[in-house]
Amino acid sequence: MYEINIELPEHVDNIIKILEDNGYEAYAVGGCIRDVILGRTPNDWDITTSALPKDVKRLFKRTVDTGIEHGTVTVLINDKSYEVTTYRTDGEYKDSRHPENVEFVKELKEDLLRRDFTINAMAFNYEKGLQDPFGGYEDLKKKVIRCVGNPMERLSEDALRILRAVRFSAQLSFEIDEETENAIRILAPNLSKISAERICTELIKLIVSDHPEYLKKAYELGITKVILPELDIAFKTPQNNKYHIYSVGDHIIKTVQSIKADKVLRLTMLLHDIGKPESRKTDSDGVDHFKGHAEISVEMADAILKRLKMDNDTIRKVKILIKYHDLRFPAEIKNVRRAMNKIGTEMFPDFIKVQTADTLGKGDYGKEKMLEHLERIKELYGDVLKENQCVTLKQLAITGKDVMSLGLKPGPAVGELLNEALNLVIDDPEKNEKQYLLNYILRIIHKKV
Known about the structure:
The structure is a single chain. α13 crosses α19 and α19 packs antiparallel against α20 (367-386). The strands form four sheets. This protein has a seven-stranded mixed β-sheet. Strands 6-7 form a two-stranded antiparallel sheet. It is 51% helix and 10% strand. It starts with 9 loop residues before the first helix and ends with a helix. It has helices spanning 10-21, 31-37, 53-59, 108-113, 136-142, 151-157, 160-172, 178-187, 196-207, 215-220, 224-227, 229-235, 248-257, 263-271, 276-279, 293-307, 312-323, 333-343, 348-360, 367-386, 400-404, 412-427, 434-448, and strands at 26-29, 46-49, 63-67, 72-77, 80-86, 88-90, 102-104, 123-125, 129-131, 144-145, 175-176, 281-282, 288-289. By secondary structure, the protein is of the alpha+beta class. The protein is built from 23 helices and 13 strands.
């Protein structure tokens, strides 16, 4: 037992005391204990107990049977919920996902033995202190991710643990134990048995962590070969030109590191050049060109994100940013207005962030000049907003109703005329005046008659 200062939330301590007062053992367990020791604030507090689910339901007024077949009852206190799970061991995992059955046990150590990594296999209550039969506390101090017991057994039970090892490593900046790594290399193909939704959840946690570059470790261990084979191809694709010093894959990793830890932004960088291997052409001088790679990357990103069951809004935003990630234009306010119209006013700041990260992931050639250019684009974007210059149909001084007042019937022609007026105003914001635009449209109509 260690002398460690762990403070349990009041409701967690009360649940443990109620169970103990009725003759049962109970501890806060798992990730919450790990996080407290690391000085982090846990997202959830889980409790493990020798009490059977029916006993937990009897002792607490408000409960929900969230996973009662696996021993889990959720106890509700005010607006908070706490999962209380009976000590258990898992039966055989025939599908690398779910145990065939669970068996309730009386010993805490047996329950902790079924957990994935030592740092997640610690339990605590005030009476008995920290329970750590597998050395999780020492592994926290050593900054090591290590399986509980035999790595081949633990990772065979639930193949998602293979990806979780790298995810925890990235989140905590820990190394993976050598035996655990060896087991990952052998068992990585089992990830094909895991649902896309579960893979996606872990992948997002990895890439928005403080160390998204650990994704390369996933490549080296054979994980991405199963869950993101397109990235493996990118790592094997060189970029022999004056702008790049990295392979496509290493450039991707550098750009993911260089952007804010946001799901949309990091997915964009992860996939922005994923079409480069397919578009790569080498000229007679040995220089590589990637014409049309943005369009190919958009199509591939769409397929990859749908395969991972990503939500539609995220897919839409990522595709827009990838489509325009290579858009270049002189740093003039008129060009900025046009780009804002094309990309979307709300997404334009993200477009600048994407181009900045893309630049930071290249070699030194032209880098400083490009970063200065992007700073100027950012300033001009601020000027457009500050002066409320028109870049969308919503900001136009006329509406479709105004156009129809000139004698036109509803139809596509009305939209076409509004867009002509918008193009005029984007070039010259001072012309965003109702009567001027109506006269302009009248002239267009008369020319067509």
